[in-house]
C-alpha cells in the first residue's frame, strides 16, 4: 500500500482529501501545519508528500527546502497545493524542489488522478 503525507491547515479540506485518498486504497498521515509535516516526514517513509503552500509555523515551501537539503538519493515525490496559481509562484515552488503543482480550488477526482499518475511513474 502506498503511503502519503498530507499537510493542509484547512481541516475540512484535509478531511475531504484524506477520505478521498483512503477510499482509493492509500494510507494517509495528516498534518495541520508545516512543522508537524516535517516531524512526520522524519519519522516515516512516504511515497508522496502533498503540501499546502500557506500553512502555520512552516510554509509548504519551507518544508520542501528543509527536506530537499537533507534527503539522500531516495528523493520523495512532492505535490504542492496552492491558491497562489500565478506562473511565478509555480516556478518558485518547482525551483524549491516540488515535483508537481496543483492550484486550489481543485476537484478531488482530479487530485486522485494526479496522485495515481505520480505514484505509477516509477
From TrEMBL:
<dbReference type="GO" id="GO:0000160">
    <property type="term" value="P:phosphorelay signal transduction system"/>
</dbReference>
<feature type="domain" description="Response regulatory">
    <location>
        <begin position="3"/>
        <end position="119"/>
    </location>
</feature>
<keyword id="KW-0902">Two-component regulatory system</keyword>
<dbReference type="Pfam" id="PF00072">
    <property type="entry name" value="Response_reg"/>
</dbReference>
<keyword id="KW-0597">Phosphoprotein</keyword>
<keyword id="KW-0805">Transcription regulation</keyword>
<keyword id="KW-0238">DNA-binding</keyword>
<protein>
    <submittedName>
        <fullName>Response regulator receiver domain-containing protein</fullName>
    </submittedName>
</protein>
<keyword id="KW-0804">Transcription</keyword>
<dbReference type="InterPro" id="IPR001789">
    <property type="entry name" value="Sig_transdc_resp-reg_receiver"/>
</dbReference>
<dbReference type="InterPro" id="IPR052048">
    <property type="entry name" value="ST_Response_Regulator"/>
</dbReference>
<feature type="modified residue" description="4-aspartylphosphate">
    <location>
        <position position="52"/>
    </location>
</feature>
<dbReference type="InterPro" id="IPR011006">
    <property type="entry name" value="CheY-like_superfamily"/>
</dbReference>
<dbReference type="GO" id="GO:0003677">
    <property type="term" value="F:DNA binding"/>
</dbReference>
Amino acid at each position: 500500500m502506498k503511503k502519503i503525507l498530507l499537510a493542509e491547515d484547512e481541516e475540512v479540506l484535509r478531511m475531504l482529501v484524506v477520505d478521498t485518498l483512503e477510499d482509493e486504497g492509500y494510507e494517509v498521515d495528516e498534518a495541520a501545519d508545516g512543522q508537524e509535516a516535517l516531524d512526520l516526514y522524519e519519522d516515516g517513509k512516504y511515497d508522496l508528500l502533498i503540501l499546502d503552500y500557506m500553512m502555520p509555523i512552516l510554509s509548504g515551501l519551507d518544508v520542501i527546502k528543509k527536506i530537499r537539503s537533507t534527503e539522500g538519493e531516495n528523493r520523495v515525490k512532492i505535490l504542492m497545493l496552492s491558491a497562489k496559481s500565478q506562473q511565478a509562484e509555480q516556478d518558485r515552488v518547482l525551483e524549491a524542489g516540488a515535483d508537481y503543482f496543483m492550484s486550489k480550488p481543485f476537484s478531488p477526482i482530479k487530485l486522485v488522478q494526479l496522485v495515481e499518475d505520480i505514484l505509477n511513474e516509477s
